[in-house]
TrEMBL record:
GO terms for molecular function: hydrolase activity. Residues 28-224 form the Fumarylacetoacetase-like C-terminal domain. This is Fumarylacetoacetate hydrolase family protein. Keywords: Hydrolase, Metal-binding. It comes from Octadecabacter dasysiphoniae. PANTHER family: ACYLPYRUVASE, FLUTATHIONE S-TRANSFERASE. The keyword Metal-binding applies.
Length: 229
């Protein structure tokens, strides 16, 4: 009989708005450059095709309301408010028309970014995984099931730091819709229940300093906030 000598860590879980329901997380996928105004402020091409995907480890998840230490190896921690899609069914080569059938629900997220690390990697043409996939970099709020909120495709998207509005967009500004994102991603990997997708951010990204609280909100969903210590 084989002996398990290294035990994997516990699966992180998200809170559902349904009492006593929790969602185990398998993987965290993220979409880059999904709002044209943010692409422009970062000096990119808003017509990039197809969507750009990157990942964060599931261990990077931190729930709304937490206090987190200022990350290592950065002098320029940025906020990015995002709509988060939570899947309860997987599949490969999912048709766009069927994609929403794979969604359990939606949440608000904050794709924390070490912007100086990202800029240095981009300048060298190097991968920028460590700009995105560090500890506590995926802030996720309460998940609302589709039965409660439907499939949000319009509504205000805002981020404040110490009450100052930094990002103020709308879900209608997304270049790639949720069905398009799911269908495209499923042609690259086999999606599974428990996968979550952070769908990109509008313009206005900026720094969070130690001692500040950052709050992200999307109309119709519970917010996601963290305090950096």
């Amino acid at each position: 009989m084989a002996t398990l000598i290294v035990r994997p860590p516990n699966t992180p879980t998200l809170k559902s708005s349904t009492p006593d329901h929790h969602i185990g997380v398998h993987r965290v996928f993220c979409v880059g450059q999904n709002y044209a105004d943010h692409v422009a402020e970062m000096g990119g091409d808003p017509k990039a095709d197809p969507p750009i995907f990157f990942m964060k480890p599931a261990s990077a998840i931190v729930l709304s309301g937490a206090s987190i230490p200022y990350p290592l190896a950065t002098q320029n921690l940025h906020h990015e408010v995002e709509l988060v899609v939570v899947l309860n069914r997987g599949g490969t080569d999912i048709a766009e028309a069927d994609a929403l059938d794979h969604v359990y629900g939606y949440a608000v997220g904050n794709d924390l970014t070490r912007r100086d690390v990202q800029a240095a990697a981009k300048a060298k043409g190097s991968p920028w995984d460590m700009a995105k996939g560090f500890d506590n970099s995926a802030v996720i709020g309460t998940v609302h099931p589709v039965s409660e909120v439907g499939h949000p495709n319009a509504g205000a998207v805002r981020c404040t730091v110490e009450g100052e509005v930094r990002q103020n967009g709308d879900l209608t500004q997304m270049i790639w819709s949720v069905p398009e994102i799911i269908a495209t991603l499923s042609k690259l990997v086999t999606l599974e229940a428990g996968d979550i997708i952070m769908t990109g951010t509008p313009s206005g990204v900026g720094p969070i300093s130690a001692g500040q609280t950052c709050a992200c909100d999307i109309e119709g969903l519970s917010g996601a906030s963290i305090t950096v210590t």
